[in-house]
Amino acid sequence: MRERGIRAKTARKYKATTDSNHKLPVATHLLERRFDVDRPNAIWVSDTTSLWTRQG
Fold first, then answer.
1. Are 1 and 7 in contact (CB under 8 A)?
2. How far apart are the first and last CA of the chain?
3. What is the sign, positive or negative, of the torsion defined by CA atoms of 26, 30, 34, 40?
């Protein structure tokens, strides 16, 4: 491997991406797990776990 310049790929260390101990405002849970609606487009949901921000 050394002769060919090949190196083993090492595993990355775990990096915490969530800081639960903050004093920022938290959005209220408006649906309270009630996902049944009586008309189309009444409720829209999304997953924001992979949105990049300036903080990382």
1. yes
2. 35
3. negative
Instruction: Indicate the range of 6-10, 33-37, 50-54 predicted with least confidence.
Output: 50-54
Per the CB < 8 A criterion, the answer to whether 56 and 17 are in contact is yes
For 19-43, how does the pLDDT look when each residue is reduced to its tens digit (9 = 90+)? 788 888 888 888 888 888 899 998 8
pLDDT of residue 56: 65
Two structure tokens written together for 3: 């002769």
30 close to 44: Cβ distance less than 8 angstroms: no
Closest alpha carbon to 34 in 43, 25, 26: 43
pTM: 0.33
CA dihedral in degrees (28, 30, 31, 32; nearest 10)? 50
